[in-house]
Amino acid sequence: MEPSYDFLHIYEGEDSNGPLLASLQGNQAPERIESSGNSLFLAFRSDASLGMSGFAIEYKEKPREACFDPGNIMNASRTGYDYKLGSQVSYSCHHGYTIVGGETITCVMGHDGKPVWDKALPSCKDGTPN
């Protein structure tokens, strides 16, 4: 890239509305740029006055170290808001409802090497007689 005329802007997210992480020109190469999400947006701007070889990018996926938020279930309260490996989230049904499935799920390493919850979320069934 030609210094002061060609730029590579790197944004967090899926478009240029995200935070600008780096603005590079010439032979600048950052040591490392890390996204907090799963996407980066690259915008190359050139005055097109010189034809040069462009640039090359190498990227690597950083393995997740935690499970995703499992969410809430209807008619239940939840405890546990840490999703790291080994962490647990528990559910308890509101009065008049019975739990179906295990009350507690644990973040474990899945067969594919990515963190997953060890079982499906429970549900709360209406326990009042008809």
Radius of gyration, CA atoms, in whole angstroms = 24 Å
Order of helices and strands: EEEEEEEEE
Number of strands: 9
Coarse morphology: elongated
What level of helicity do the residues show?
Answer: under 10%
Helix/strand/pairing class, anyone? mainly beta
Low-confidence runs: none
Strand order of the largest sheet: 4-5-7-8
Our measurement of the CA-to-CA distance between the termini, rounded to an integer number of angstroms, reads 74 Å
Percentage beta strand: 25-35%
Count the helices. How many? Answer: 0
Q: How does the major sheet shape up?
A: 4 strands, antiparallel
Domain Sushi: 65-126
InterPro entries: CUB_dom (IPR000859), Sperma_CUB_dom_sf (IPR035914), Sushi/SCR/CCP_sf (IPR035976), Sushi_SCR_CCP_dom (IPR000436)
Protein name: CUB and sushi domain-containing protein 1
Keywords: Disulfide bond, Hydrolase, Protease, Serine protease, Sushi
What features would you describe in this structure?
The protein is an all-beta fold and 130 residues long. The protein has 2 domains: 1-62, no CATH class; 76-126, Complement Module, domain 1. 0% of the residues lie in helices and 35% in strands. The protein contains no helices and 9 strands. The chain has strands at 7-12, 20-25, 40-45, 76-79, 88-93, 97-100, 104-109, 115-117, 123-126. It has a 4-stranded antiparallel β-sheet with strand order 4-5-7-8, with no helix packed on it. β4 (76-79) and β5 form a beta hairpin.
